[in-house]
From TrEMBL, chain A:
It comes from the Bacteria. The chain crosses the membrane at residues 6-26, 33-53, 82-103, 123-139, 145-167, 188-209, 242-263, 275-299, 305-327, 334-353, 365-383, 403-426, 438-460, 480-499. It holds the Pfam family Proton_antipo_M. Coiled coil: none annotated. It is found in: Endomembrane system; Membrane. This is NADH dehydrogenase subunit M. Residues 141-450 form the NADH:quinone oxidoreductase/Mrp antiporter transmembrane domain. One of its GO terms (cellular component) is membrane.
Automatic annotation (TrEMBL), chain B:
Residues 69-119 form the NADH-Ubiquinone oxidoreductase (complex I) chain 5 N-terminal domain. It comes from Actinacidiphila guanduensis. This is NADH dehydrogenase subunit L. Residues 457-475 have a biased composition (Low complexity). Residues 135-424 form the NADH:quinone oxidoreductase/Mrp antiporter transmembrane domain. GO terms for molecular function: NADH dehydrogenase (ubiquinone) activity; NADH dehydrogenase activity. It is a multi-pass membrane protein. It comes from the Bacteria. InterPro entries: NADHpl_OxRdtase_5_subgr, ND/Mrp_TM, NU5C-like, Proton_antipo_N. One of its GO terms (biological process) is electron transport coupled proton transport. It holds the Pfam family Proton_antipo_M. GO terms for cellular component: endomembrane system; membrane.
Amino acid sequence: MSFPILTVTAAVPAVGAVVTAAVPAARRSAARLTALAFSVATLVLALVTMARFDTGGARYQFTETHTWVKNFGLHYDLGVDGIGVVMVALTALLIPFVMLAGWHDADPLEDVNPNRRWRPTQGFFALILLVEAMVVLSFEATDVFLFYIFFEAMLIPMYFLIGGFGDRAHPGGEEEAARQRSYAAVKFLLYNLAGGLIMLAAVIALYAATAKQLGTGTFSLQEILDARAAGRLHLVTSTERWIFLGFFFAFAVKAPLWPLHTWLPNAMGESTAPVAVLITAVVDKVGTFAMLRFCLQLFPEASKWATPVILVLAVISIIYGALLAVGQRDIKRLIAYASVSHFGFIILGIFAMTSQGQSGATLYMVNHGISTAALMLVAGFLISRRGSRLIADFGGVQKVAPVLAGTFLVGGLATLSLPGLAPFVSEFLVLVGTFSRYPVLGIIATLGIVLAALYVLVLYQRTMTGPVKAGVEGLSDLKARELLVVAPLIALLLFLGVYPKPVTDIVNPSVGHTLSDVHKTDPKPALEAKK
Amino acid sequence: MDTLIGLLVAAPLLGAGILLTGGRRLDRAGHLLGTLLALTSFVLAAVLFADMLGKDTGRRTLTSHLFTWVPVDGFQAQVGFQLDQLSMTFVLLITGVGTLIHIYSIGYMEHDERRRRFFGYLNLFLAAMLLLVLADNYFLLYAGWEGVGLASYLLIGFWQHKPSAATAAKKAFLVNRVGDIGLSVAIMLLFTTFGSFAFSDVFPKVGQASATQHATVTGIGFMLLLAACGKSAQVPLQSWLGDAMEGPTPVSALIHAATMVTAGVYLITRSGAIFNAAPDAQTAVVTVGAVTLIFGAIVGCAKDDIKKALAGSTMSQIGYMIMAAGLGPIGYVFAIMHLVTHGFFKAGLFLGAGSVMHGMNDEVDMRKFGGLRKYMPITFVTFGLGYLAIIGFPGLSGFFSKDKIIEAAFAKGGTEGWILGTCALIGAAITAFYMTRVMLMTFFGEERWKDGRTATASPDEPSAEPAAAHSAHGAPHPHESPSSMTIPMIILAFGSVFAGGLFSINSAFVKWLEPVTGHSEGDSPVSTGTVTAGTMVVLVLGVLVAWLMYGRRPVPAVAPKGSLLTRAARRDLLQDDFNHVVLVRGGEHLTRSLVYLDHSLVDGVVNGTAASVGGLSGRLRRLQNGYVRSYAVSMLGGTAVVVAATLLMRAV
């Protein structure tokens, strides 16, 4: 048996969480460094996996298969295709930056606390590692039930991260902040649990359907696909559609797709910037990823049946999210709505069912992760300096903190998909992939590029330019630790903007597999089609 | 040789990278480094030009493929360059004028503490603009296209502490983004029609398009025109250019006169194969050009701000170029020829305006100038030569290039030819008028800046040009600018005088570009001599009227109320007011009501549905009362029970 690198990649942060949590209360920096070390180790493992991934090889690689509960058909099946390996790498990449950015976010406000077991810093970092482990396992699981377990389990640490370590800067004061925080945390939990419960029903229905047709029920993606290919499994159309909807609903809550998006602005607005990044750049990606892996592969016919509605919802998300972002007064909520818009692009690309659309959507997940991390983390530095997240409380920051303003602008330009920065490539691919099959939707989605410019540049203008506002005068520029967070992210945005080949090479074959699952081929150019 | 093409772009890009990340250590030498790298690019361009001249006309195109940018099934975007005569012309103009303006900026920005960053942005602009004209496919061109937009944004808003500058920068970027939709959609249409967006794949195939695909080709033409309207400030996307004058004057000269704003002309000329196959799109192009050339000229007549008057003029002159490009093979060559001569004289005029402002405490209101010729002789002479060139004084550059466009407009033939030709002639008359007005108000007449009347700049537009920071406030003491500023002006004046003549000897310019753009004479209903004579008549008329209004009579220091048209023209013919009422106000209402709806309706409906389905509303109310933790735990517990129960049931 070969080295179970996928299990290890998930186990390292899980173990790290335990170790970090066990660090004594007084040794806060030891806890931070421990957590960081484990997250870096995870990153190394993820990069090794990515480097060793054979782009010409089998669809799923580094597979591990163990029967877990035999008469229940439950397996511990792990495996990654090109899309999965890239998503694991993205997660592992972002976590160290999230940690560095939130270095002091969880420190108790007073040095002395009568309760000696009070260890918020340890808890904060342990929870982040726990989320990482769950997310990585969700990207790796090729057993539907196994996936479901991690998909749901990650809600618990996320709930505590939002509710327990929220943003201390609230326009309504500390008490209001606490109230809003718990509201946001519960809303997050309820939405996602509701999605999860519906998915659970669908998972069980899928099991029952397989049990009926195959004799023994199974959750294994591979077994189901094999049985279908061999003609032994054929879901009744209506059954397939219902089960598909159950899965899709859960993923659409998490992604989030309009009109299920309203938990996101609350959650991102009330949590600290690093946790907000964890939500939108890491956890939410499981939703869009799962659409590619489970919806399209398991239910190709139902996916095609639902495509028109999903595409329209995606386009609404794009435009609606962007318009809402324009109307926000709160920096973090603005970025949250921008993410709603961006998730619309990702889902559009997935369901356009073209090579460009799906490769673009996968690349979009990566690029959105990096660009939102850059923008949101700098915004977090800014907000914590001023003690306010209202746009109106800022103005003229570039005068007092030019480096902060500059990096914020780069993050913003990435968000509006400027060529040369990574998100441009993925956004254009999604648009062209959509346009080639659905020209009208493609053109409407293209309007999003103007709106993105609007919300980014208005945000920049109001916060960074103009005369220096009262309360902004004394703000310091980025510190070394903060630069260490931002500079590599910007470098990555530039690199992937100019040379996305390392990622697309891994992703392309998997997209080809997914497209053949749904029996879709790219439309031919009009000129060739005639011949 | 072909590896040099990449270096052309790389040199200024390197400069931008170093200057923008280098930090304060580079403050002392940054501007020199930036200028040196711009010069490097120019020298490389000259070497490539010499090499190109040594080759046969048919084999002058150089290509260089660097790497695959976006490799996705079916969609292969390359980073590859193509240097032909058309690109070469632009490269020489961009690097040549670019280097001169770097040199000028050394003096002009001397007292700005952020000078290093300014040069970084200028270098960034050069790199992006060179990328735009050297790209061998539309996708890479798009990168350059947005890159110059970014540089323009950064430079218009260079004095970010001025709210007006920040607003103008944002506006320019947004209006350009609207145009960018055109370029995006054009690329998508090219991809779905031809399976490629590389020039070498698309252009030969345009002819093979069937009837239905002809409609698509026309659509591509319209989309490219939309893009061109944005970047080249053509009606209806012209509103940003006047505001862009908030940027430092060298920026106005380089980006908003000589180079970037001509990118639309480049795009249309480069896409000649597409437009030649889409007559309807061509009609749209000439219409936009003709409307803009009149529109810009009228706006130019009413502005008292010297830079805004010149901006109106730029719009108008680019209108000539766009119109010429829309004429097809009759006009492509002359569009580019006018573009080059305009690059010289308009850059010169802007630098002259900057020099005047430099000596006048950054005053921009021409009503507070007057009689300056005695105080700044070099500026006066170089500006004057630019003036003569732009109005088309016989023998100077503008005469040759503009006259050719007017001839070509008539040569279009039919009613269309007459309409376009007449528009061009009217435009020429108005050009003579407003430029004479600028000349008279600035350099002749009473010295209206004396008596401390211009002690400070107009209060509603606080000036921030740093050049004045060192001179004491109070009445200005007009003086000539330092040589780092005057030398570029002198060089540009030479171009303004001689370039047109040189290009016309033996039809040199036509022969140079013809292998790329194609050329045909057309057949004009009026003879060349008649056109030239007509041009002369309208020229004299325009100058005469201006002299009667601004030369013979003293110019009032406070603007008179003016006619309805004048007042409208001062407000850019009310287009901004329209934008404000319809787009800005309407948009604000839309977003505000959506924010409200999202909070009350969408959130409410989703929560409500969930509540009615799962009976969650009572619990939601309870969580407001502080049972949050207990609720969450019970919920999680519930899930766990459900999962366990299912597992058990299945297991037995």
